[in-house]
Each structure stands twice: as C-alpha cells, then as structure tokens.
Amino acid sequence: MNILHPRAFSAAVLWTLGLLFLGSVVHATESSLACPDWPTCFGTMVPEMSGGVFWEHLHRLVAGGLLLLWGLGTWLARREARDRPWVFRAAMAGMVLLLVQSVFGGLTVILRLPDLVSTTHLTLAFSFLILATVLASATGWSRNATMAPAAAATTRRWAVAATALIMVQSVLGALVRHTDAGMACPDAPLCLGQVVPPLDSGLVALHFGHRVLGLVTVLAVVGLVVRAASVGAPPAVRSLGTGALALVLVQVGLGVASVLTGLAVVPVSLHTLIAASILVVLTHAATMASVAEPPAEHLQGAPAATSAVGG
After folding, report:
1. Which of 6, 127, 191, 232 has a beta carbon 3.0–4.6 Å from 139's, enabling a disulfide?
2. How far apart are the first and last CA of the chain?
3. Which three-class secondary structure state does DSSP give residue 191?
4. C-alpha 29 chain-centroid distance
5. Rounded to two decimals, what is the model's pTM?
6. Which range is least confidently modeled, 142-146, 182-186, 208-212, 279-283?
7. For the purposes of burial, counting CB atoms within 10 Å of the CB of 96, is it exposed (0-12), middle (13-18) or buried (19 or more)?
8. Phi, psi at residue 50, to the nearest 5°?
9. Around Cβ 260, how many Cβ atoms within 10 Å?
10. How far is CA 105 from the centre of its chain?
11. ω before 186 within 30° of 0 (cis)?
12. Across the chain, what does the average pLDDT equal?
C-alpha cells in the first residue's frame, strides 16, 4: 500500500517555510496593509498584482494553499494511520492552529497592525511549523531510526531545550520586528557603542535581549552537538546537530547584516527563514530521538535495561 500522508506532511513543512519567508518579505517591504481589507483585497479576490499588493495578496494565496494541503494530509492520515490515532488528532490540531492563525492574519489588517496581534500571528505560524515537523518526522523522516536508549534520552533533552530556546528567540524577534525595535541598536556587534547599553529604553532592552538570547541559543546548540557526539548518537543525529549549528551561525551573521544594512529586505527576510529552518532541524532531531527504536544488538545484549527504559 502506498502511504501518502507522510509526503503531505513533509510538503506542508516546506510550504510553511516558504510562507514564513514570504510573510517576512511582506513586512520588510511595508506591504502588510497594501490590501486594506480582508479576506478580499480592494473588494475582490483577484486584485491587480502589482507593487505591495503583489506581495500581500500572494502571501494570502499561499496561506490558502497551505490550508488545502494540510487538509489533504489530515484526510490521508485519517485513512492510512488508523493504527496510530494520535497522528490524525495531531493533524486536526494543526488544522485548528491554521484556522486560528488565519483569523489573526485578518485581524492584523482590520486592526491596522497592532503589535500584539501581529506577534501572535507569527508565533502561531512557528507553532504550526513545529507540529508539522513532528508529524513529518514521526511518520516519515524518522521511520526505522535506531538509537541506544541513553543516546536517545540525551539527544532528546538537548534538542528539546534548544528547540524551546529557538522558539522563544523567534517570538522575541517577532516583538522586535513589530514594535519597530530592529534599529534600536543601530550598530553591531556593539549596541549604542557599548557591550551592555543603557536599558532605560524599552525598545533598546527588547533588542538587546534578543541579541543576548541569541548567544545563549548558540551555546545550547553547541551543547547538543557535543553531547550527541559524546554519547555515541547515530551519524544522522550528529549531522542534524552540526547542521543546526551551521544555520545558527548563519543566523547570527544575518542578524548583524540586518542591522548594518538598515533592515534591508534580503537579510531581514532570510533571517526569518533561517530561524524557521533551525526550528525544523532541531524539532526533527528531538522527534527522531523520541521515536527511534533500540538497535538489535542492544535488544539482544541488554533486555532488562531496555525493558526498564521502555517502562
């Protein structure tokens, strides 16, 4: 039987990455209110696709495509994963997330871009991306993965912690974006010419906090790489950790470039895309460690220990 729902979930992850990138382009080009109404654009679903309307309406169309794609994946999961009902339930939760996020997308336009609503809109997008990655990994990417219980437990702890940090950092970045704090520190790597700037301004404190948490995140991903190697995690897991570290370093460079270019469209948009990509890689690593089975030699050599871990 040809199982299709893992492919639908995988496609949804890639689609969401593209949608997040496109949303960042919309904001960076100041096209968020190019369509002043919602769900139509100037009263029609087929406006003239030029200027800011092109980016904003394209973003809406791609978001609609994601709803259809996820709906297909959910329907396929209902048919194909009857032995794993959690897959369908998680897919349904993802559909709810998408619908709620769509409503918040409309509210950002109707209410004229309030900071909290816009930040919530992006936070929901990242939350959906994590859920989609878990489903894509558990049903497809990590199938038949093997890992010793000790290595799996260590990898899972570090990957989950790093994923949580990236998520918090992404939400903080959304606040920086939507409160216009991106240039509160107009220099880099210093802030207002100092290692620790005066924090009496809320925007400076927010921007500086984003930078500090970024450094903490780098250390967490380094810790994942080191610990995965020290416990003998499989090459696939070590590669994910190394890939996440490479992306984090690129992300730091894009953050610096965003400031030094005065929030130019390309580095700012790529900054969002790379943050989302890091979330995918780390979530995949955490999921793989969660669903991986002990290798055959471990089952034969230490049945008691395996039983204890499983219980």
Report:
1. 6
2. 32
3. strand
4. 22
5. 0.93
6. 142-146
7. exposed
8. -145, 155
9. 13
10. 17
11. no
12. 93
